[in-house]
Design a protein that fits this description.
Number of helices of chain B: 7
Helix content of chain A: 40-55%
Oligomer: heterodimer
Strand content of chain A: 5-15%
Radius of gyration of chain B: 18 Å
Strand order of the largest sheet of chain B: 2-1-3-4
Strand order of the largest sheet of chain A: 2-1-3-4
Order of helices and strands of chain A: EHEEEHHHHHHHH
Shape of chain B: globular
Largest interface: A-B, 30 and 34 residues
Shape of chain A: globular
Mean pLDDT of chain B: 94
Low-confidence stretches of chain A: none
Mean pLDDT of chain A: 92
Largest sheet of chain A: 4 strands, mixed
Amino acid sequence: MATNKNPQYILRYFDRIGVAEGSKLLLSAANVEWTEEHPEWPQEKSNQPFGRMPVLIEKHVDDTDFVICESGNIERYLARAYGFIPSDIRQAAFQEQLRDQTSDMFAAFISQLVAKSEEDRRENFAKFDGLLDKLVEVQTKQINANGNNGHLFGDKLSYADIVTYAFYKIIVVGMVKRQANIVDIVKPKLTPQLIKLITAVEANPLLSSYMTRSDSLAAVVTKPTSARL
Amino acid sequence: MLSGSDTVYVLRYFDVIGRAEGCRLLLTAANASWTEEHPEWPAEKANQPFERLPVLVERSNGNEWILCESLTIERYLARVFGFMPTDLKQAALQEQMADQQADLLSAFFAQLTATGDMKSKQIDEFNTLFDRMVKEHGRILSRSSSKQHLFGDQLSYADISLYAFYKLFIVYLKCYQSDIAEIVKSKLTPEIINLILSIEKEPQLAPHFSKCDTMAAIFTAKDF
């Protein structure tokens, strides 16, 4: 539990939906004071602790700053500090493994996006596709085991719900400018259980301020596909 | 310690150093009851929760619990066996280092597989990132009261994670790229080499070296 009153947070990242999205969701859901900074890049690269973003700065009243980086690490820190990760070690680990799965998926997705040869592109896309199918299967199974109530675990917004939502948002909304067909690839794979979770996350009162500033993923995944003859 | 004395662990992975060394070292340092399984691959792929390895199986009181993802397994074991600080900020600093190290492994494979004009760019990126990692390790060490440990005066998750990281690059990855060990060794400072060798001498890790070589023989006087 934070002992400082009203710590302020600064989240440094690019002005886009990317790996910092989970952190933005968690900061919003935690109902803390926070702002976003979009440093000039690459000019500000050497001013970041590890030359990379995102970076989280937690400011304290006595002017000491606590600075951490690595998107997954920032998410886990915020989730633990504000009660979105269970204190039970096993339950926490079970949620974390879902998030860690997505790192390899991002890598495969980016690899297929920037691939120079068609062979490379197909190989990396197949890897991404295979991992995605497995992830959807595991997530859906867990949602069902939890009673298909719009949550992966329990009945409150959790770290797992947030990072799951963030993953699909990054791929389907964040990446669409770079790969227009991504919606047609991912959307058919989303099970009704996942769509229900995505909708529930966006409707959660804890995220109402986040939703005033962010595009709706639910709108994209529930939009009827054009009829095929 | 949060594990019962009748709890046994099975670590499923390939019979290589790979991404499981941190897990092996943690189980060893914890003096846990554990064994390793090397599933037939790809025959056993479909039997794993995410069709990937490593997988940790925890068995106690007739129950079985399964966890995947190498870093998740590491953090879980570190917490169960008391190698992770309970203070959230201190834990985040150790986890950050482990995540940064994982980025380096990705950067290694990116430069290995890159072709054309991307190749030299990825090699530069890898070298820059690695230099930064060594500097970060040095920075943490310089703030530590003990030069044998990164944080505090006892073996922690960070120490084990750092050791596994350098072992990966100096002992294992040459199976992918023959010159990587020399490239990495040339980047190390005497302080970091001393730290690696100190961690290796931790009594809690002694059983690990009955199964594999230490890195002591790899560093000669001219490396310091």
